[in-house]
């Protein structure tokens, strides 16, 4: 994750695979194509919107239609929203609960022990995880062929991109100086298009703070930044606009394409490759 830290921590609680081992729902085998599917996290929302029939979706989170966070905001518009309310979920009586979140201090603890069929997905740290999630979701909602078609399109689109980065070094630099490191979906995305993650060079973990002085000393060929940080709105974004960074070419992508491991990964790869082709790196001496 690479959102501002408080939101990153909040979303970590609702990411597929983030539920504790004592998840409150019992997994129930499917007996028919589900018709009242409820999603309880943003990442599940996006797969559900892409793979299920609209008529099957009984509820998504309030983030699903947020264009700043969701890659399917337009498609999700008008879908019923499920708040953090056990009563609302009980009233729907879902036949599939998708993306079960952590339940500590949550009103949804009232759902413990209810015999709902559930689907929980592993957090994606590489493209192979996205493929697995698409396949698992498509099967669960009763549209396996739809999932395979989407996987085929993603693979073909990625194959067409190649590796335009050609070994250039890039830093995924975020507000307040946070840099996305190794073992993350962003790192996998960078390597896929031929970029070297500066975090790897520096031996940094999945998320770390890098000062302006450290960034200038490291001299990456590119800075990858979120579209939402293009304007100075607070101290967190002000750092990204310091004049000492002006000489480093920027690759800009929406946060909504990388906040979850989903098909928007391909859109991010395409956009990054296009910008590399039109904005050559200034090779540092």
Automatic annotation (TrEMBL):
Keyword Signal: yes
Coiled-coil segments on the chain, per record: none
Signal sequence bounds: 1-21
Keywords linked to the UniProt accession: Signal
Domain Fe/B12 periplasmic-binding, chain residue ranges per copy: 36-285
The name this protein goes by in its record: Iron complex transport system substrate-binding protein
Native species: Novosphingobium fluoreni
């Amino acid at each position: 994750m690479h959102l501002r830290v408080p939101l990153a921590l909040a979303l970590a609680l609702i990411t597929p695979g983030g539920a504790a081992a004592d998840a409150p729902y019992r997994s129930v085998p499917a007996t028919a194509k589900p018709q009242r599917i409820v999603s309880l996290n943003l990442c599940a929302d996006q797969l559900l919107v892409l793979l299920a029939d609209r008529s099957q979706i009984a509820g998504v989170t309030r983030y699903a239609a947020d264009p700043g966070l969701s890659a399917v905001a337009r498609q999700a518009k008008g879908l019923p929203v499920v708040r953090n309310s056990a009563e609302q979920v009980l009233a729907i009586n879902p036949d599939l609960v998708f993306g079960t979140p952590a339940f500590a201090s949550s009103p949804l603890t009232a759902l413990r022990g209810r015999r709902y069929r559930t689907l929980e997905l592993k957090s994606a740290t590489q493209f192979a995880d996205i493929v697995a999630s698409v396949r698992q979701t498509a099967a669960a909602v009763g549209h396996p062929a739809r999932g395979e078609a989407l996987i085929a399109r993603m693979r073909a689109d990625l194959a067409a991109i190649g590796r335009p980065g050609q070994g250039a070094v890039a830093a995924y630099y975020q507000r307040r100086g946070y840099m996305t490191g190794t073992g993350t979906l962003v790192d996998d995305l960078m390597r896929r298009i031929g970029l070297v993650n500066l975090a790897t060079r520096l031996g940094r973990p999945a998320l770390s703070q890098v000062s302006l002085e450290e960034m200038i000393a490291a001299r990456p060929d590119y800075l990858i930044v979120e579209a939402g940080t293009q304007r100075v709105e607070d101290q967190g974004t002000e750092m990204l606009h310091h004049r000492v960074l002006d000489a480093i070419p920027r690759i800009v992508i929406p946060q909504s394409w990388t906040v979850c491991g989903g098909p928007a990964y391909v859109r991010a790869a395409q956009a990054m490759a296009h910008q590399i082709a039109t904005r050559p790196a200034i090779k540092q001496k």
